[in-house]
Structure formats: C-alpha cells, structure tokens
Amino acid sequence: MPIINSILFSMNRALQLDAVLRSFFMHCGDADGVQMNVLYLATDDAYARQYRDLMKAHPKVNFISQENFRKDTLSILNPFAGDDGAEKVYFRLCAIGGIGFPPGSLLDRVWRRTFGYIQRSLTKSFMPRLDENKYVLFLVDDNIFTRAFSLTDAIKALGEQEDLIGFSLRLGKNITHCYVNDQPQTAPAFVPVNEKVFKFDWTSSEQDFGYPMEVSSSLYRLKDILPFVIGLPFENPNVLEDRMAFHAGVFRSSRPFLGCYQNSVTFCNPVNMVQSVIRNRVGDDLRYGVDALKKRFEQGERIRVEAYKGFIPSACHQEIELVFGKVEEQ
Q1: Please, is 66 exposed, middle or buried when counting C-beta atoms within 10 Å of its C-beta (0-12, 13-18, 19+)?
Q2: Rounded to whole angstroms, how far apart are CA atoms 244 and 248?
C-alpha cells in the first residue's frame, strides 16, 4: 500500500488520545501501511508523564513533543528527508509561507497573491518530485473510530477520481446534524464511486459537507496538501484548520468533490476544551473536564473503545457518554 503519513494532534489529553489510537488500530484493516505520528503538547509534568506512559503502550507510534507547532508539523510532512539540497529549499519555502496577516484582510490578500507566484513556481519546479503514492491523514485526540474500514478504499478512490480533493472518514449519509452550528443539515447528492465509496460536490454543499479542508479525520494527497499548507501561517491545530478552510476555494475548480463511505467510521466526542484561541462549542459535563480525565488516567482508567463499536453518529462532532475501564481490562 502507498505510504500514509498520519499526524495526530494532541494537547493534555492522554486518556482521550489512547482511545483514538486503540480504536484506530482496532478498526483500520490496513493500519500497518500508516506511519502514525502524534504531535503532542503537555503543559505540566503530570501530562508529560502520561504521554510517556502512552509511548510505552503504543511502541509503533512516533511521539513528537511540540516545540514550534508550525515547524514541527511541516517537519513531519517533509518528503525530502535525506536530500540535503531539497530539504533546504523546502524549509526556506516553509519559512516564507509562515508570514501571515488576518485572513481576508487586504494585507492577507496581497500577500497570498504574491506568495501565489512562489507557490506556482514551487509546484512546477519542485513539487513534481513528490511521490504520487504518498498521502496525509489528519487526526485529533477526541476522535473515536467505530467501524471497520480500509484506507486502501480511500487511496483507490483518490487515484481513480482526479476531481476528489480528499477522503473524509467522518462524513456519510448518516450525518444529518451540524454540531458546531447546532442545526440540521441537508445531505448532498451522493454519487457512487464503487460499491463502498461515494463522492459529493462540496462546492455546492452546506455546513459540514461544504467544509472539505479539516484536520480531524480526512485523507489527502501529499502533492495537493503540501504546497497548500506551506503557504499558510498557523500556530496550533485550530488555526491550521481555520486557515485551510478559509482558503479551500483554491481547489474549487480542480477538485470540487470529496469522497466518503456510505456511513462515517469515526466522529469527534467534544466533551472538553484545551485551547482558547478559537472558542469551539464543547460539552460542559464536569466529569469529562481535562483535569478530571487526567485523574482517571493516573488511577489506571482508560476509555473502553469496544463500547463504541458499531455506533453510527448523526454528526461529525457528537457528545456521548464516556465508558471507562481499568488498564488490565483493555
């Protein structure tokens, strides 16, 4: 299977991160073809210790302690490791793209147009060196996988359907509610790609279905996403997604469709918040606050991911009860 480089973003959520990893490896039929990288931020010694515990529990996962979020993310995505000349060009271009202004402002528009020239030159002279068979899977630490799936299905669809911008693991015909806006949403017209996979036109869709660039559970071609991301300034996962979504229109004419399964295979359980940059909607149950879950982890409890097997969410983000068990029971 072609190489998939996955970046899983995590901050002070070791217990929830453990659930993502265990549910992913439980349900992904071809997980051996994925290089799983966890980019984590621990703000105190106790959280850092919990992440070290997870390193022992998940030895096949590559854990990277965050120092500079943008630089760390682009280093994980770096496809030129070992080629000193190419790496120097790559990181210089990454540095240029890090200069940013408020999205939509005059300065931002002028800068994007200026950098657009650099990006076009980059694509023509540099990015063709990218392997056609490399992909990026973005995940976050409140994901829970619930159904069997194969990333080969997504790769096959992206290889055969040039109009696909990516493949969403969180969307499907079952998604009828937008949690972020707390509103029902109309499903788009799903077009069969094969017996397992569908696609829809995100450019004419609403809410979650009209939001093709996100970091919680979507697979993209490296040749598409890398030139796009290195041209964006961002300092944490929320700002990265916000910038990606704001500039998604660059793919409107060339990649107007998004792939998915008939039913989503994962969802985010937004029971708490660890950042204050973008005030997303989250649950307010104190049992699931980050400090409460931190204590549960210290007491040897983990989320029982088996309890969610077969669950079909009605939204990409959906608050549901957390089911706990002791480590020895997992």
Answers
A1: middle
A2: 6
Q: Residues in the chain, how many? A: 330
- In this prediction the pTM is 0.91
Helices (H), the chain: 14-27, 45-57, 69-77, 84-97, 106-125, 151-160, 222-229, 237-246, 290-298
Cα distances (angstroms) measured from residue 120 to each of 112, 125, 231: 12, 9, 11
DSSP string, 232-293: S--SSHHHHHHHHHHTGGGGTTT--EEEEESS-SEEE--------SS-------GGGSHHHH
Query: With pLDDT > 90 as the criterion, what percentage of the chain qualifies?
Result: 70
CATH number assigned to the domain covering 3-79+130-329: 3.90.550.10
Q: What are the tens digits of pLDDT across the range 298-322?
A: 999 999 999 999 999 999 999 999 9
User: Distances from the Cα of 317 to the Cαs of 117, 134, 171, 178, in angstroms?
Assistant: 37, 28, 10, 8
Count of helix runs (H) and strand runs (E) in the chain:
9, 15
CB–CB of 155/164 below 8 Å? no
Query: Which residues fall within 8 angstroms of residue 70, CB to CB, at 6 or more apart?
Result: 94, 98, 233, 234, 235
Residue 60 makes CB contacts below 8 A (sequence gap 6+) with 36
- pLDDT, residue 230, reads 86
State the greatest distance between any 2 C-alpha atoms of the chain, in Å, as a whole number.
57
Residue extents of the structural domains in the chain: 3-79+130-329
